[in-house]
Amino acid sequence: MNNNLKNHWENIYKNKNEDEVSWSQQIPSSSIKLIKSTGINNPKIIDVGSGRSKLLKSLIDIGYNNLTYLDISETALKKSKEFLGDKSNKVKWIAEDILNFKTEEKFDIWHDRAVFHFLTEQNLIEKYVDLVSRNISNDGYLILGTFSENGPLKCSGLNVSRYSKKLIQETFIKNFDLKYMFHIDHITPFNTTQNFLFSLFKKY
Ligand SMILES: C[S@@+](CC[C@H](N)C(=O)[O-])C[C@H]1O[C@@H](n2cnc3c(N)ncnc32)[C@H](O)[C@@H]1O
After folding, report:
1. What integer pLDDT is reported at residue 1 of this predicted model?
2. What is the mean pLDDT of each run of 10 residues along the chain (204 residues)?
């Protein structure tokens, strides 16, 4: 576990409310749209770096119940569990640095909004690519929301990698087929704009 990184995120989730962080969104529409577009019946989904996202709640409300939450921050996990209340038993909860995540499980859908782009070192990017390639089932999907080439240089005080359509495709090309991709402006709670690139990849 990278303790500096863990402490960074624990501090954020201990000290800031949900509407005091730039990535907060009321309805994760782009993610829901892409998950539905896979057409898989009750897929096994992991939301990596889920933070306090409302995605899992939205998915439970639609009827999905094969869900896994993962985040480096135990505080974010605890607050998300509280938020879900009785519905929290529909989710498997994991507090872990994604780069240390070891599992034999295969997911039909791996969802990551605004987490992968925090990896800025090539060896860590490759480690992540290797991890998703191993832990997504055959014909499963990877959904990634990263900052685009016009997005911010930093998030939460940390450097990020920004992705063009070409770069994100090249990064995952070895094991994934690009199915769909779009840009979308996220309006932060402070009324600023962050340009995201959302990609839907299918595993070969
Ligand atoms: C910008 S927030 C996005 C949260 C959420 N995905 C959303 O869309 O609202 C980044 C999240 O990734 C988590 N995170 C950052 N690095 C991580 C890592 N190496 N492993 C697991 N989670 C990580 C943070 O704790 C934080 O919750």
Report:
1. 64
2. 91 95 97 98 97 98 97 98 97 98 97 98 98 97 98 96 98 96 97 98 96
Pocket of ligand 1 (CB under 6 A): 9, 23, 49-51, 53, 71-73, 76, 97-99, 113-115, 118, 155
Pocket test for ligand 1, best of 8, 9, 128, 158 (most atoms within 8 A of CB): 9
Q: What is the pLDDT of residue 2?
A: 81
Model pLDDT, residue 3: 87
**Which residue in 145, 147, 133 sits closest to 177, CA to CA?**
133
Ligand 1 pocket mutation pick from 56, 103, 111, 115 by most atoms within 8 angstroms of CB: 115
- Helices marked H in 65-197: 74-84, 122-135, 165-172
Closest residue by Cα to atom 10, ligand 1, is: 115
For residue 24, give Cα distances in angstroms to 53, 55, 134, 189.
Answer: 7, 11, 30, 7
pTM for the whole structure: 0.98
In the chain the domains, ranked by start, together with CATH numbers, are: 3-15+24-203 (3.40.50.150)
